[in-house]
## 1
Amino acid sequence: MSSIKLMSFEEELQKNPELKEADIQTLREWTNQILEGTTREGYKIIYGRLLDSEPSHFVYNDCMKLLNMVIDLWLYTEGTCAGHIILFDMKNVSFGHVGRLSPMGLKKFLYYLQDGLPVRLKGFHFMNASPLHMHSTSDSLEKFVPLEVLPNEADGQAGPLQELHNKQVKKLEDSVAWFEDDEANHRVNESLRPGKAKTATDLFGVEGSFKKLEID
């Protein structure tokens, strides 16, 4: 299934081409950026981190919308590469954030990552996640991600996190016209489909388990 078609089902993740107040608020609370440099294998690194540690301010679907916009804009401006990895920095995450996850939104996003995202996803990494026993420090992460491309606050050398975040925000703000064109011209009109139009419920249902996410 094409990424364009899948995005038509992702109502929670659909881009609004205008950066409205809700989006600006999300930009204050969450950063998503594709870091400069690559892994040893030549993979680009999609880095995400909460800027605000207060769980009541966390809106999962808005954060995923921002992530999708960052990836779309990168693909438009940079093209393709050997692959991408996603690195979530859990520094400001607590169990209070878990209760604010949207189960259906999470299920749809995992489905989109597997079958619709137009990049070669090579892996997920989590750092500063001691309770989960993943990358408890940057020492083990360095085997996969060169530390020099990480923000200073993540034990890296690429510069202050806020400075890198502001740079990514400016890219989004400068690209509103492109997002408007993409929204207007790259969506599927299900009313033109031969036979019955398909909806998100047809694909995902209301209940059910998560689909297994496959990584190259």
Note: Residues 119 and 132 are 27 Å apart (CA to CA).
## 2
Amino acid sequence: MTINGQQFKRLVFCDSSLALEIERNLECFRGEGIFPNMVIRYEREIWVEFVQGRLIKEVDDSLVEKVAMFYSRLYSEASRLVETNTTLFPDRLDRDLYFLNQIGILSNGLLGELRKSVDALQPTHCWIGFDYTDPVKKNFVLNPKTHLLCAVDVEGLVSEYLIGMGAAKALVRWLNPFKNEFFRLLATKGAPDIQAYYGFIELCFLAQWTKRAFFERDWKAIKPDYFEGYRGL
């Protein structure tokens, strides 16, 4: 929307508690340039600054570095190393896999093999913190003023998350050819080391994403073949 020549983005949520949570998350990165700055929250409504920039068209080394910079900043903010079994993610992963089996997406045999693989992949400790869960290319702009990648769809910014699940969506969908370079850049920028147990992270993402796609009736996003790579690990 435009008021007095100034552009803003207005978001209305289902309730005020969700709007408050998003406001709190955004304020942690105010002035960083990787998200639009908050303008105001009123009950269940949020206004943020409108960020002009160039949409992502080509994925190259320069863009991969900007994506790594974006996620390294997120993952370095108030992240903490915890015992994995004290988090909700192992139970959630098993629940999601079982549900996918119940509705016929995963066979009984594949479910059994995936559960064995989870036992091998699950780390003793994992990093919890901020993440950005919707890194589709249309949700980013390249800001010509800051030369940073800015995520304009602010609903995807979450806290208390298994770090890496957000980046996993990009790595599965469009960043996969640059996976090794992405992790190398994350490490050089001082982000928590998640590469050693990325298989567990990606499996958590795939199960959650496929389950959500089922409820949203996004049939094209449901690809059981994604899970085949986790047989017999």
Note: The longest strand covers residues 125-132.
## 3
Amino acid sequence: MAWSPLKLWDEQTPQRKRRTECGSRDMNKVRRDLGGKKTWAYIQLLWYWLWFLFTCFFLSSFPCTQEMSRNFACRNVRICLGVVTFPVQVPFPFPLLFLQVIKCKAAVLWEANKPFSIEEVEVAPPKAHEVRIKILATGICRSDDHVVTGGLVMPFPIILGHEAAGVVESVGEGVTSLKPGDKVIPLFIPQCGECSACLSSKGNMCIKNDIGSAAGLMADGTSRFTCKGKPIHHFIGTSTFTEYTVVHDTAAVKIDSAAPPEKICLIGCGFSTGYGAALQTAKVEAGSTCAVFGLGGVGLSVIMGCKAAGASRIIAVDINSDKFAKAKELGATDCINPKDYKEPIHKVLIGMTGYGVDYSFEVIGRIETMVAALASCHYNYGVSVIVGVPPAAQNITFDPMLLFSGRTWKGSVFGGWKSKDSVPKLVADYMKKKFVLDPLITHTLPFSKINEGFDLLRAGKSIRSVLTF
């Protein structure tokens, strides 16, 4: 076969190889006319160099084709110059039009109160302003279990999961903030940067968020997941219990590429939700007294936030005394179990503090403890924050005098953080060792053991279980 200065090392079919060989023989006369194989080599190199310049510079100068040129595929190529051979990548015109459906494993919940089923699903390519992400690690959150048990009503079948870290596999048309290869955290609270909520300094609930939506679909009203010929619903715009997922580009943010995914995935929900509830929502002051109801991963993160804010007394409340050692390790000064007292827990806390705590946090999601947390606050200026996801279709009843006297009752979603602005900073703080995540992770399991992870959660034997792929 005639020598060529450029050899493509893609896997070739026999038919393609025969075409290459025939093409080489047919060009022998042209090569002789051009002065031999050395001149022909220079011509070929010049051609590929010009094509490279055209793709990278000329096409990218036009707004209408910039996305296509930026997302062209690259072929592995080996350049031969004399006896020296070295690999390079040369762009070839395979634009977004040719992105393929990916088949992968996902944990599908077909109906409530049933185990997850590991299925092969089809994940469609990202559409305009969407990103397809390869999930590297995902945490099991109590909010996911609320869907399983029916406490949070969502359509079935569905792929749950919302606390994860991954790598961008491909992007849709119009995506400029992310590119393939970026390490990212999916965001169940997006940040479009344009709506009234994003532009306000008072909150973080982007109007484009999908929390509480009964649709379970992407913005165009369709799903990117298919299993056994049936569309599978998305969960709060993330759906991370799968090897690949598709999210809107406002619902993912680039993070430090060196950050360990099996650790920083907790910043996607649990840690940020609790830590921010203390620092962002309640704005705990130095020297204050705090009470935290519920010592799961989020509750322990609240304790970490209170400690970081300089609280002088942090009272941890839980009916599982086995969690007290971890709570004290992370900053709790007192730990109490309501089962050890005959009187209501809010009276116990008032008795411990005089007139009630400065700040209380309900991190369970139970109506009764929400009222108890409010009643445990200082009657005149106490602040109580609801952090746990409330049960669906339930009303709360309380004495309005609890608020009339001066207490403040607040809610907190994702710790009050503006997601795209704050998540990269939180990851950077973790990398600088400003806080720890390891104590929150009690189990690291392969993705196939997702049901075991939920069993540990329900039995109170885990704080955070992380699934790896």
Note: DSSP finds 15 helices and 20 strands in the chain.
## 4
Amino acid sequence: MNYFLIYRDLAFSRMQLIKFSIPFCFLILCLSIITNISLVEAQIRKNSVVVTPVSEEMYMFAGKGGNIGVSIGNDGVLLIDSKSKQTIDNIVSSINNISDNKPIKFVINTHWHHDHVGGNENLNKNGTMVVAHENVRERMTNKQFVDFLNREFLPYPENALPIITYKKNFTLYFNDDRIDIHHIPHSHTDGDSIIYFNKNNIIHTGDIFINGRYPFIDHSSGGSIGGIISGIEKIIKISNNDTKIIPGHGELTDREKLKDYLVMLNDIVQQVQKMMLNGNDLDTIIKSNITSKYDSLYSDTFINSQDFLGFVFKDLINNKSHPHIS
């Protein structure tokens, strides 16, 4: 047996293996780095915010979760809603850059949903006071189940809860502006409010109005289509043609967009009501395509036309005592 040849072949094979392994390992390392960078970039995009100046003193912070309204002035900073626990630190950092690190004194929650109150706890650690309707505190204090999402929400910790609540309306004077908070009963939920900055002529609607989407009516939390319509009517009544509208989600808009939204809501409610009076069930109503002329404007992956018709149908079946659907 020629041991020299065997050794030579083994040595050659080992060299070939090493020759192959080094670039292969390098390739794996590069792919791992690229994957990690992609994950980091995806997380950054997920938690990123888009800042839109609304007036000299106010901004809208958009991105994942509900839109935040921000008032900056001599008294400090006031927020409308706080998005999520995952995004609030990035938002605070951006606000600090704009405000020269002025303290965030207040956050007003438009309603209890997690994408609007999730940042409360982190804000509270730095002394921010939370303001909301009493029903918001009640729902945040207790376990909630949202049927439409098929999801349970556990109670929030004490330091995330509103410490200032109101029953109907509330007024706050801050940054040389009168801030009127109007509770809209049984709209998106039972605790929703719209917030009007009088001097700046800006209204934050919360999720009573979503720009470019049919409304989400959270029946599990006391919402109703009649309340949504009342809320839109209220916003139109207290606004004017120069008012800037910060929606709960979607782009900054104006009063005309609200008027179009109201026409759509009333039209669909009346058509559903008429079909129900003629004995049609929900499946028949959905197949009738009564929303077709609005779907390109308002139907999306979260709330589509079938979902919205289901909300309206359920309200009418339950005979909610509201002038719009009586």
Note: Residues 140 and 155 are 6 Å apart (CA to CA).
